[in-house]
Amino acid sequence: MKAKLITKNKLTPDVYELIFEFEWEINSHAWQFITFILPSWLRRAYSIAFQNWSKFEFIIKRLEDGRWWSKEICDLELGTSLDFIWPVWHFVLKETPTNKLFIWTGTGFAPLYFQIKKATELWLKSHLNFIFWVRHLEDIFYENELEKIKQENPNFDYSLYLSREENQKYKKWYVTDFLNKENVANFEEFYICGSPAMVEDSRKKLLELGILEDKIYFEKY
Asked: How far apart are CA 103 and CA 109, in angstroms?
């Protein structure tokens, strides 16, 4: 069974949206990943950003130094087919009515975006808030998609911060600046995905604010 690359969009100078069509529909859960077997026979797992029947979307940062072999998959020609290993992982969206806060940096966006889309499809009776940061304006992607979700779902909101650039539209903050007693009090579940340092800093801050450890779900990239 193979997956064919049917769409490739360059979202930022180094982030790509890749859409693969699978030979038949397979079931996945929000926050799962698929392991691709690349032409070099190396294996690399990427989180699913969204599934639409047999089509799967991925958000991948292309690294020139070859780390994680992201350059190889981002440079694939349209129409290339890859073998893969079925979706796995257990950090999935909890289908509960409790309010949820999603925290993201980098291409950790992918699994959290899938979770938010899934939550809105299920019409979960909970408030969903997505906070994230990028370094520069040129690093922003999928803001239009998030705005569309917000317009269609009054229980969803998001905040975008810049960490290295001043801009009138966006605050110059780090994600963890949002995590204070007042903001955290509005949520019962926390989903974090991004760099190891950000994930650990966010978890530490949430625990210091009295959040129970079993209500913090995370993945490091």
From this structure: 9
